[in-house]
């Protein structure tokens, strides 16, 4: 089916004094109804910038964003309802001076001026399992737990009946004990509403739990993508292998350890990123070509792709 939201060859450069931060380069991604894509990478890999580009916080420096197949210019009205971004910090995204009811009412009224607001607010709270509704509707954000606040944020996003949810680390500030419940809630919403979901995370274990497809970013570039099982069982890019090996997942396959995690060092600066493959200073398999030329995208059967010279030489 046609993707709801797409990035095609999207780059975002930010001026920084006399330099340029190359936050995202040449990103291509498609979100389909009812499917969850995990965008995985370390902090500073460009994930959040890409989410903001997809949410039209700012325009790309080059490349295209498409909504329902149409190239988007500016921020058309459809965008406000069709694409909703959920942030890491649920406290920061709710108005602390207003009760839950007011926080939700505003979104409902904007989207459906003639709706029965009370009924709609109650329905939204039920959808995110904040029940009984009376227990939550008149609370202030500070009277709720982090998980409850994030549910209110999700309810508010649902008020405008979006087609796409972009979740930027939506569980990473929550208590470990409730993260799984939040992932299950997101999973339920995609099933019930056929939402397209982009789940942005540094944590490959949660990506593995929730998503259908994985896309890995490193230093502003996408380096590998494909169906989750295949990417995790047999990563093509050494950096993906590093991510999987450093994740505390008991089911991981028995590939030999390629890395000594202690020796890896920091991800590179995006102001003056390494030439060639950006991962080459950390890659134990780097060859001469990796230091000078960026690896092209190699497509493999089964919807997989990667940017690594090793695949070109296979
Ligand atoms: Fe390593 Fe070269 Fe592949 Fe980059 S292109 S990940 S340096 S082998």
UniProtKB/TrEMBL annotation:
GO terms for molecular function: ATP binding; ATP hydrolysis activity. Residues 5-244 form the ABC transporter domain. One of its GO terms (biological process) is peptide transport. Residues 249-258 have a biased composition (Basic and acidic residues). PROSITE patterns: ABC_TRANSPORTER_1, ABC_TRANSPORTER_2. Residues 244-271 are annotated as: Disordered. Keywords: ATP-binding, Nucleotide-binding, Transport. This is Peptide/nickel transport system ATP-binding protein.
């Amino acid at each position: 089916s046609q993707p709801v939201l797409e990035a095609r060859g999207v780059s975002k450069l930010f001026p920084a004094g006399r330099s340029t931060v190359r936050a995202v380069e040449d990103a291509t991604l498609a979100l389909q109804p009812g499917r969850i894509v995990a965008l995985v990478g370390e902090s500073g890999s460009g994930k959040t910038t890409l989410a903001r580009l997809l949410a039209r916080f700012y325009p790309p420096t080059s490349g295209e964003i498409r909504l329902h197949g149409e190239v988007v210019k500016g921020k058309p009205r459809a965008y406000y309802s069709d694409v909703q971004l959920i942030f890491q910090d649920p406290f920061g995204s709710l108005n602390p001076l207003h009760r839950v009811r007011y926080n939700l009412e505003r979104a409902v009224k904007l989207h459906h001026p003639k709706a029965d607001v009370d009924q709609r607010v109650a329905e939204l709270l039920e959808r995110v399992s904040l029940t009984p509704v009376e227990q939550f509707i008149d609370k202030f954000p500070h009277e709720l737990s982090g998980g409850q606040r994030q549910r209110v944020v999700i309810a508010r996003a649902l008020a405008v009946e979006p087609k796409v949810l972009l979740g930027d680390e939506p569980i990473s500030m929550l208590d470990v004990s409730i993260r799984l419940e939040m992932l299950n809630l997101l999973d339920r919403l995609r099933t019930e509403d056929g939402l397209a979901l982009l789940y942005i995370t540094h944590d490959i274990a949660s990506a593995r739990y929730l998503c259908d497809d994985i896309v890995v970013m490193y230093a502003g570039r996408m380096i590998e993508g494909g169906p989750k099982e295949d990417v995790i069982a047999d990563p093509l890019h050494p950096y993906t292998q590093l991510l999987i090996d450093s994740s505390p997942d008991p089911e991981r396959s028995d590939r030999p350890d390629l890395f000594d995690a202690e020796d890896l060092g920091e991800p590179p600066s995006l102001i003056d990123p390494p030439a060639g493959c950006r991962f080459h200073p950390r890659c134990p398999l780097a060859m001469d070509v990796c230091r000078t030329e960026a690896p092209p995208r190699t497509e493999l059967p089964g919807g997989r792709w990667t940017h690594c010279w090793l695949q070109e030489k296979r």
